[in-house]
Amino acid sequence: MSIVPSQLNLSTNLTEVEQNHAVIVSAKVADQFGNPLANQDISLFTEHPSFSGPVLLTQKETDVHGTAMFEIVLRIPGSSVLQARLGNLLASSSLSVQVIPSILSPSGPKSWFGISGSLSRLERDLSTVVGKMISNGLHPSKEELCKQLGLDYDKANDRNRVSDALYKLKMWFDYVLKVLYQPSASFGKDFANLMNDASSYAAWKMDRNSPYGYLKAYYGQSEDEIRQLWVMSRMWDRFVQLANQYNLHMFVGYYDRDLRIWRYKQPTFWEYVDKQIQSGSRLAKGLGTILARHRDLGMILTSAAPVAGALEDLQKVQQMITERNPPKMRCLKCWRNGTIMEVSSQDELADHIKAVH
Fold first, then answer.
1. Lowest mean pLDDT among 113-122, 154-163, 290-299, 310-319
2. Are 74 and 44 in contact (CB under 8 A)?
């Protein structure tokens, strides 16, 4: 008698989650006798009121226990309906996960015009000036910005005013992303359309400037992971274009090695990723210096936690931000038995525990 996949069950660890947080979804496949089936290709789909139809999120094979585990980030507020499919043979019952807007949503204006009206005069003038310069292919220095704004670069107070305005515009960009774009219906539509846009994704992969090969070879990203990164990069592009229409621009500094000066530009998604890595590295080094002083001078932390432990945790975080190799996860049961067993992911750790313990 042949073995036939007959059961496909889906479960999740949460039925309600905050926007941009992850849920763990488990799909289990069994044959007609209830026995688990390994090496079955499971596709996970989602539906949402803002989508025109189901969107394929990711695919995985079942393990020896007939289980495929998915860790997915839900970004669109409202009810996300999840379903697992095994080709055209089986489909699980649907599960609904309620995605609620960020609990810590900042207070402030709730419309694009309200935000435009909340900018200070300097912030508004600065955004206008840099927007025009960037549209002409120019990346201005702070001295050039001061000149365009009628300020004196040689005066520390004027330089600081521009620096402060640049920082506040960046904070406004973070604000409108969380408060206006992500909760909007257009955010969900953009996500669904891009996830289903196979031709544009294929063209991006073949582009000579695409980071696709680098992400796959250097970081070991899966096809599904890279595709979602591409989707988020395109959504960033759309968000930036929308913000620019309301005279809201976001700038980051970069060092012009030829002229030995700092310039400002509106970054692409990938440039912004790199900028965040650099910022994270600097912050981690600063925190490391503070913790090292606590250790060397015998100081106490506010929580009274061990300084050595805080330093070790900081090193792990810094490694995750700046290095390619993720920190290892240690099996505590093996460690208690005198054996060191380390893996690179929660999935590997779960598989190890099931197989050995």
1. 310-319
2. no
pLDDT tens digit string along 174-220?
Answer: 899 988 898 888 899 999 999 999 999 999 999 998 999 988 887 77
* φ/ψ of residue 189, rounded to 5: -65, -45
Q: Residue 290 — φ and ψ, nearest 5°? A: -65, -45
CA distance linking residue 325 with residue 318, whole number of Å: 11
**Residue 334 in tokens:** 């093996």
Within 13 A of 295's CA, how many CA atoms are on the CB side? 13
Neighbouring residues of 99: CB distance < 8 A, sequence distance ≥ 6: 16, 17, 18, 19, 74, 75, 76, 77, 78, 79, 80
In terms of DSSP bridges, do strands 95-100 and 16-18 run parallel, antiparallel, or are they unpaired? parallel
The CATH architecture one would assign to domain 5-100 is: Sandwich (2.60)
Q: Is 338 left (phi over 0), alpha (psi -120 to 50) or beta?
A: left
For the chain, which residues make up each domain, given as ranges? 5-100, 112-265, 270-324, 327-357
DSSP 197-224: -HHHHHHHHHSTT-SHHHHHHTS---HH
Which of 265, 243, 244 is CA-nearest to residue 256?
Answer: 265
